[in-house]
User: What shape does this take?
Amino acid sequence: MFSNEPSLEWLSDVSVFKVNRLEAHSDHRYYMTMEEAERQAPMELRHSLNGDWKFSYAVNAASRVEDFYKADYDTRGWEDIQVPGHIQLQGYGKPQYANTMYPWDGLDAVRPPAIPKESNTVGSYVKYFEVPANMENGPVFISFQGVEAACYVWLNGQFVGYSEDSFTPAEFELTPYLQEGVNKLAVEVYQRCTGSWLEDQDFWRFSGIFREVYLYTVPELHVQDLRINAGLDAVYQEGTLTAELSMATAADAFVKIGLKDAAGAVVAETEGQVVKGKAAFTLEAGTVSLWSAENPYLYSVCISVFDGRGELVEAIVQRAGFRVFELKDKLMLLNGKRIIFKGVNRHEFNSRRGRNITREDMIKDIITLKQNNINAVRTSHYPNQTLWYELCDEYGVYVIDEMNLESHGSWQKMGAVEPSWNIPGDKPEWQDIVMDRAVSMLERDKNHPSILIWSCGNESYAGEVILNVSYYFRKTDPGRLVHYEGVFHNRKYNDTSDMESRMYAKPADIAEYLEGQPDKPYISCEYMHAMGNSVGGLHKYIELESRYPQYQGGFIWDYIDQALVAKDRYGEEYLAYGGDFDDRPTDYSFCGNGIVFADRTVTPKMQEVKFLYQNIRLVPERDAVKIINGNLFAGTEGLRLEFRLYREGRQIFKGQQEVAVAPQAEARIPLALPDVSGAPGEYTLAASLLLKEAELWAEAGFETAYGEYVFRIEAAEAAEDLEDVMLPAAGEFRVIEGDVNIGVTGRGFAALFSKQAGSLVSLCYGGREMIATPPAPLFWRATTDNDKGTSLAHHAGGWFAASLARSCTAVRLETGKDRATVTFDYEFSISRELKTRIEYTVYADGRLRVRMVYTGAAGLPDVPVVAVSFRMSADYGESDWYARGPEENYSDRASGARLGRFRRKVTELPSPYLVPQESGNRTGVRQVRITDERGRGLQIQAAAGEPLECTLSPYTAFELEQAAHPYELPKVHYTVVTIAAQQMGVGGDDSWGAPVHPEYRIPADQQLEWEFWMTAALPETE
Assistant: This one.
């Protein structure tokens, strides 16, 4: 649409979404010389307008400064605002987080295409600039790479154009409106427009010019649009490259094209004439190196445009990767091989800048992906900045490129499917605005080899409009597949998607689909909802890969916590979630689903992801390691095998070995290890594959794959019984039973048990008190986000009460010459049949054996944890573990945890999830030492062959339960020690009702018996 006069009616007119906007085109760079083009230098033909702009804010159109765009309107008294940036993160209005509901739900009764009028914030931007000297004689254009959600543009008081779609470029020609000297650019940005009904993604609701803005000019002869296709022959060896050029004008031009390999050698070249502004070229490249995430080999397509005098006018270098992605025999194949997506959904997000992310953010992200074996990303749920696709091309990451479409709130309300007013649905009036978003994405991004799949958007139900988008994708770009999950809810439009795609399907449901010999391969476009302490049971999805060829992976939800830096009432920074800005309505902490925290540090969940996503599996045996190379294209030649032997967690041997295992092959590698048959103990054989040379994403020596094997060497003769002790000198071991207390003392230690308190109340070693709060049975954990999703507190809250209070029904003392046993029996109000016994046996050498017997009862909900918990002074703030780690792990999230020794400060053990919750647990605990800075304190030892679970934290489960933010937790006074027979898994199939899988739950109606030993921990020198 073209117009010289703007209208506010466009904001609510579904037929008006672009006025005077240039057509979408490829994102190639262009230069005046080939030397600049080949080194991808900064473009001299672009001029950035980023930086300070003058700014005025209004809550709605009626209160805006209406004439600010006029040439004589003086804005010198206005405040400054940074571009790019969000309005709401620079002191105006407030950010609002909402998941599925529209952000005006309950505040305004509008239905599409109408929009709220009273609460439609307006940002009025002004930028003064002079035309750069190198642009004075040519046309001048402006590019807005991202404006949320609608913008009107004026130059020197004259209307330039209008655009919607927050996540693709809006470009306009400025030439007719330029003047000599200073020019006044004015932009009016509205937070709401008709397009906002299509932008109901699960994210913070911002507005403003949040991506870069620049002026640009073009040479006299300019390639306006470039389409590159680097295809392969039927056996995926010989490459053919086609290049289609569309010029900005129909003037005559001569073009030379050279194809260069990564070393700069010319592989093929051709030349030809441009006819009526169009040209097409084909280059036969011969045998080529293929592009894949495993080996992202890129060629350079060097395009030189000459005028009639033979002078070079324009130079372009476009990276290209030879690859074929196809659907064949009901499988998705890359270069003829069945692909498995080990993916993640990724929002563009920065905790201080929102969706205004930087190059540094993107490089950090892509390095994190590569280092953790993540091979694919879905751009949830909008096109990303161009640089992201370039990095995916270069580093090797498969991409589902998703158009900017989500209308979740129009058809699903509080989880129920109710599409009575769904848009776009079958409504023809919405076809053009939706199709425009598809065209803008495809035309910009079409030359990136990393993009394998176009996605028709997210969670917008189904209908003719989206089906037509899929037809457009296939017709315009038959070399890629088309994805859309929404047809799951309406099979009438099943042809929209080339693959079966579901969200949060349980492993059993996926297996059921695949058992039916379906027509389409399967992916989970979202799975493993990583909210808070989650990602339990990931291995169940990974196991499907080997069982069903048509299972082709999935994309974890999601990459990064969408949390914003804010300050509490005392000026301290913290990570805020929905509602913390008094934003209503909101979905509160549902924005915290990342496998990396908002500051881009990895969460403990990543330990599991990296292990289960690894392409190469290492399966050590007693004297060998089996290498199973699941790569499609890459052998192990670039990797070195390192193997280490540990005894009781301490390394006793290390070796390295060259290995050569072809892709899709396996080999058993014998290892030369020392003979340990005469040294009894627990051994771990750990194997790693390390990079021989540095890659873009990691230094040489970086570990890409890991596996371990644990075995025991038993002593030739029976080992000394832990209960055997050396008798002390006469009189040194004493047991004193008083009216209220029972004391047991010996050389260097003293224990005191209280009949009144019903527990051990004091344990001293070397005169130092170990017990700050007496041990007690614990059956409750601070609910995780997933626990809250299953309403654990509602149906299992009795365990909370049982953990807070108990009745000690009996105290018994038994004595022997070298030991004394004090037993406490407990009953609980939630069931008369539920009983627990804790038995403390103090030995004459100072060791304390703790034995707990849990006798369950029928009719009770599953137990969150069966443990004993007590507090020590926070002076004992150091921990030294021999357990599975180093990061937290749980029964259903322990595949990636390694058996070994590691140290952490107690304050570092809990994970900083957005909402305080259960965290920091370790499974397979053989031993843990809790000490002061001098190494003195308490050592806890599991019984031989019976490892425990253990959590150390500055906070009790009850303190964590009551805190909605970390700043609400008390100051650190204690080290809370929780030693468990079992803790339930954390789950992760979803966070709104999916239970932990049965094998990782703890039925209440069973009997559990377990024990551990406590003794003094001393510095190694003592």
User: Anything to note?
Assistant: The chain is about 10% helix and 40% strand. The chain has a mean pLDDT of 97. Residues 168 and 995 are 39 Å apart (CA to CA).
